[in-house]
């Protein structure tokens, strides 16, 4: 038999060299499907190596402002300054920190190791936070599934002047049920 045609779209010379050395396997088979499958396996083998070599840069998180927070939303990244922190007496390992930026302030409920990061006057990055209503007021919290984080901000982070006139945790919200006819 003569050599079979292959629908392989590999563009690398190294793939072609490797393929040429091993092509006799597909020549001996009478099935075109096996030949195409062989080409696909070769292409995948070499394309994985290339993808591993070209590492993608991680995106820097986009920080939003406190004034953009709304009840029931999640996935927020904020860079805020800690105004003050109060331990919750009845619940061990919890603290409520008043945090803010130039647009306003909000109460952040810190748990366990997060409490240690929330020092008065420090600038912190809060990642993947959500807004919950507690006693009709907004609270910034991290999800229980540990997908969020609180870290001290990088050294190059500029100092934040907090707008203490606008505390979004003092706004009361009423939950309204909408009934469709």
TrEMBL record:
<dbReference type="Pfam" id="PF21473">
    <property type="entry name" value="OB_Ssb-like"/>
</dbReference>
<dbReference type="InterPro" id="IPR012340">
    <property type="entry name" value="NA-bd_OB-fold"/>
</dbReference>
<protein>
    <recommendedName>
        <fullName>Single-stranded DNA binding protein Ssb-like OB fold domain-containing protein</fullName>
    </recommendedName>
</protein>
<dbReference type="InterPro" id="IPR048970">
    <property type="entry name" value="OB_Ssb-like"/>
</dbReference>
<feature type="domain" description="Single-stranded DNA binding protein Ssb-like OB fold">
    <location>
        <begin position="69"/>
        <end position="151"/>
    </location>
</feature>
């Amino acid at each position: 038999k003569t050599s079979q045609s292959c629908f392989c779209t590999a563009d690398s010379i190294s793939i072609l060299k490797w393929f040429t050395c091993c092509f006799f396997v597909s020549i001996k088979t009478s099935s075109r499907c096996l030949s195409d499958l062989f080409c696909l396996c070769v292409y995948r083998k070499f394309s994985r190596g290339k993808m591993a070599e070209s590492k993608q840069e991680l995106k820097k998180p986009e920080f939003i402002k406190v004034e953009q927070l709304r009840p029931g939303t999640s996935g927020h990244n904020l860079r805020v300054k800690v105004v003050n922190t109060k331990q919750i007496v009845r619940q061990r390992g919890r603290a409520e920190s008043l945090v803010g930026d130039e647009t306003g302030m909000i109460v952040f409920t810190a748990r366990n190791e997060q409490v240690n990061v929330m020092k008065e006057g420090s600038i912190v990055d809060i990642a993947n936070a959500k807004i919950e209503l507690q006693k009709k007021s907004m609270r910034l919290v991290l999800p229980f599934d540990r997908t969020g984080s609180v870290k001290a901000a990088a050294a190059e982070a500029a100092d934040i002047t907090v707008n203490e006139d606008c505390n979004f945790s003092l706004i009361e919200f009423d939950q309204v049920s909408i009934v469709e006819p």
